[in-house]
Structure of Phosphodiesterase:
Amino acid sequence: MEVCYQLPVLPLDRPVPKHVLTRRGAISFSSSSSLFGCPDPRQLSQRRGAISYDSSDQTALYIRMLGDVRVRSRVGFETERRGSHPYLYVDFRILHSRPESVGPVSARKIRRLLSFQRSLHSSRLFRGVLPQNPLYILDDDYTGQAKCMLKKVGSWNFDIFLFDRLTNGNSLVSLTFHLFKHYGLIEIFHLDMVKLRRFLVMVQEDYHSQNPYHNAVHAADVTQAMHCYLKEPKLAKSLTSWDVLLGLLAATTHDLDHPGVNQHFLIKTNHYLATLYKNTSVLENHHWRSAVGLLRESGLFAHLPMEDRLGMERQLGSLILATDISRQNEYLLQFRTHLDREDLCLDDAGHRHFILQMALKCADICNPCRTWELSKQWSEKVTEEFFHQGDIEKKHKLDVSPLCDSQTQTIENIQMGFMTYVVEPLFVEWARFSDTRLSQTMLGYLALNKAGWRGMVQEQASSGDDTDPTLEETDSDILPQESREL
Ligand SMILES: [Zn+2]
């Protein structure tokens, strides 16, 4: 047991509960969030968890959060987060294993399990395991440069990768906190800045940093794009502070605790989340419920009336669920109909909410509308994640999901299909709604990037590599409705 964990931070203010001690190898610990102040002892005791060690499996460390598995509120709304359920058929400890990973034996033996981000972060920190990225050790010069970058946070060319490096890997916290101040949300909603920062740190930590694509940097990128849309003239003059608050919260949390595999994978491996959400918007529901869990845990809006808090949670869910790409056509048709009829009235709260949904959808898949330098990096990251899933599927003799087979797919054909069938139709409609310089810029980059990928396909075809498809084959090869979250 001592191989896995040393326990420098134990909530020693009260005895470990008997039901924890009766577990073999059980210990108690507090989550990293308790470091941000002096929590109510009752909350602390609720956050105790049990860690058990199975000697028959030398690589397994099971952690069960006693208080967080399921929280039932007095009004009957259940949050779902930080479940300690193992995946049923596939051992997900292999999901983020990297052969090149180095470090102490104990660190290598502990594999990340879904939803345990903060536990592992804190355990690594307290065991003295330094982050492997040398850029985590930065001086004030970098902080100053990050602050300087924030002055241009509304620029469409904002380099989120650079910003993430300059902020020590804290782009999501830094950027969102800055935007809350920028929009005056802290004053308007009487937010406690310590609680806000604690909430954002928890959000950032619950993104899986091992995911090549669905990590906190993607969330920060989506939040930055959302900010660009929120300040578009049509929206800026119509949206209320409540709308802005919800838009930013939804962007920040929209992929929370994403496991790095898609819904299709969760369904075919009988994952409990698929059962819980009846195979429908499985990931999006999980992101939403995880966000609600963190909102409640942080107490960020605890001072608001219950009715407002529940309304916020419902609207947050509606926004996050709209990012389910399998429902793209449904939203697009609705958007098109409104635009054809010219009946969108942003004085109407329902219409404003719909526009927020569309803005979030655009922000979520706007990678191909960025500059080539940024767009290409995102394309590489998402392809890496797809192929990683495909490798797991092959290893476990499961059907390889579309777009996930590195032997039959290429980054170029994935991007061409994605741009043609998913991104372009959405951004064309967005430009009809908001015909601004930004919209035209986005469509311009989209066309340029598409031409860039097309050129690479043609180059490969002319070089005689017969494993690469022709452009026509590429377009028809992609299934735009494939449930895939970006
Ligand atoms: Zn996303």
